Amino acid sequence: MTVYGAGKLAGECYTRAFWETYRYPTVVVRPFNAFGPRCHHEGDSGEVIPKFVLRAMAGKPLKIFGDGAQTRDFTYVADTARGILLCGTADAAVGQTINIGSGREISINDLAKTVSDLVVGGTAQIEHDAPRPGDVLRLCADTSKAQALIAYAPTVAFRDGLASLYSWYRQSNRSVDALLAEEFEHNWTGKTVNA
Question: What confidence score (pLDDT) does residue 185 get?
Answer without folding.
Answer: 74
